[in-house]
Amino acid sequence: MILFFFGLSAGVIGKIKGSSFFLWFLIGFCVPLFGTIAAIVYRFEHAEPQRRCEQCGRVVKLHEQVCMTCGRDLDYPDAPVPAGTAGHLS
Ligand SMILES: [Zn+2]
């Protein structure tokens, strides 16, 4: 029963992320807890790409068109910056 819960939770998280419910259900069922954590991390890494404002240096969400700190208009970047790497850009 507990394995079903882990599989279900991982599947739901994977589904929210836009991935396969059945795939993540199997992962969560076969590797309980780890599968759920993997689904959560997988979602966060891919769902919220970030970039750095050229003017004030504030890290903003990729989909934001205007910096909320300095009001600068942000052009949509040619290449999306994965979350976690924006802080390393100068
Ligand atoms: Zn700014």
Characterization of the model:
The chain contains 3 helices and 2 strands; from the N terminus they run H-H-H-E-E. With 90 residues, the chain is mainly α. The N and C termini lie far apart (50 Å). It has helices at residues 2-17, 21-30, 34-47; strands spanning 50-52, 59-61. The longest helix is centred in the first third of the chain and has 16 residues, at 2-17.
Key terms:
binds zinc ion; rod-shaped; mainly alpha; 2 strands; single chain; 90 residues; 2 domains; 7% strand; 3 helices
Radius of gyration in whole Å, from Cα? 17 Å
Mean pLDDT: 77
Structural class: mainly alpha
What share of the residues does DSSP label as strand, in percent? 5-15%
Query: Cofactors and ligands present?
Result: zinc ion
Q: With helices defined by DSSP (H or I, 4 residues minimum), what is the helix count?
A: 3
Which spans of ≥5 residues are poorly predicted at pLDDT below 50?
none
Could you give the count of β-strands?
2
Biggest beta-sheet profile? 2 strands, antiparallel
Distance between the termini: 50 Å
Overall number of domains: 2
Helix-strand pattern? HHHEE
How would you sum up the global shape? rod-shaped
Proportion in helices? 40-55%
**What is the strand arrangement across the widest sheet?**
1-2
Strand and helix map with partners:
Layout: H1 2-17, H2 21-30, H3 34-47, E1 50-52, E2 59-61
Antiparallel strand pairs: 1-2
Helix pairs in contact: 1-2, 1-3, 2-3
The protein binds zinc ion.
